[in-house]
Write a structure and sequence with these properties.
By secondary structure, this protein is α+β, with helices and mostly antiparallel strands. It has one domain (4-222): M1 Pyruvate Kinase, Domain 3, CATH 2.40.33. The chain is 23% helix and 25% strand. The protein has helices at residues 65-71, 122-127, 132-139, 172-180, 186-189, 199-211, 218-222, and strands at 4-10, 14-16, 19-21, 26-27, 32-35, 38-39, 57-61, 88-91, 103-106, 109-116, 144-150, 152-154, 160-164. The strands form three sheets. It has an eight-stranded mixed β-sheet with strand order 4-1-8-7-11-10-9-13. A three-stranded antiparallel β-sheet has the order 6-5-12, with no helix packed on it. GO terms for molecular function: catalytic activity; molybdenum ion binding; pyridoxal phosphate binding. This is MOSC domain-containing protein YiiM.
Length: 224
């Protein structure tokens, strides 16, 4: 099966409960320009933790929607792509099939895989489920981010072509599992630090090695 873009989605910053967010994405028709900081017409609210070159484009596997519908059969957000704030809904790929440092050609643009998504409390507000972010993290169905190496155009139906895989033993799923499982053992973390990680993930793993402890997730997952 050839992996393809099911939907291209963008959104603007708008109210979300007591805060604001760009998580509500809507599909666009026809080609959409992608530049260094993401898709034309897309926006993020909190630029400290969203957006930027390392998080220019968020991908989410359409295959994940089935398991989520099993848990939340009456949730209308799960009827179409965009529930999780993704920019690209992807058929034929998930976190197990994508590795850190991969280079993918999608449409006329070239991307590299930078990191998995660490879900935040805004998913709780979007779904009306107090522990939705924690559920997403525990499931491993979190999504992954792309850096734009070559700007171009992208649209629904475009194939996802793997150009290079320099780190085949480090899938996004495996690295996300280290975070989720609060891994602190040097023999598990030191190989990850050899990857081309974004600064935030490098700090996370370095701090675990230095302290022997995992970071506190409450603020990210609960907004506390």
């Amino acid at each position: 099966m050839v992996a393809r873009v099911r939907s291209v989605l963008v959104g603007r910053v708008q109210a979300l409960g007591p805060t604001v967010s760009g998580i509500a994405k809507r599909p666009v028709s026809g080609p959409r320009r992608v530049e260094a900081l993401g898709l034309a017409g897309d926006a993020q609210a909190d630029l400290r933790v969203h957006g930027g070159p390392d998080k220019a484009v968020l991908c989410y596997a359409w295959s994940h929607y089935g398991p989520w519908r099993d848990v939340f059969p009456d949730q209308p957000l799960l009827e179409a792509p965009g529930a999780f704030g993704e920019n690209l809904s992807i058929d034929g790929l998930d976190e197990h099939a994508v590795c850190i440092g991969d280079r993918w050609r999608i449409g006329s643009a070239l991307f590299s895989v930078t990191q998995g998504r660490q879900p935040c409390f805004k998913l709780n507000l979007r779904f009306g489920v107090p522990d939705m972010a924690a559920r997403v993290q525990a499931s491993g169905r979190a999504g992954w981010y792309l850096r734009v190496l070559e700007p171009g155009w992208i649209e629904a139906g475009d194939a996802c072509e793997l150009i290079d895989r320099p780190h085949p033993t480090h899938s996004v799923a495996s690295v996300l599992a280290l975070i989720r499982d609060r891994e602190t053992r040097p023999d598990r973390l030191e190989p990850v630090l050899a990857l081309p990680l974004p600064a935030s993930w490098r700090r996370l793993f370095e701090q675990r090695l230095q302290t022997g402890q995992a970071e506190d997730w409450r603020r990210r997952l609960e907004g506390a």
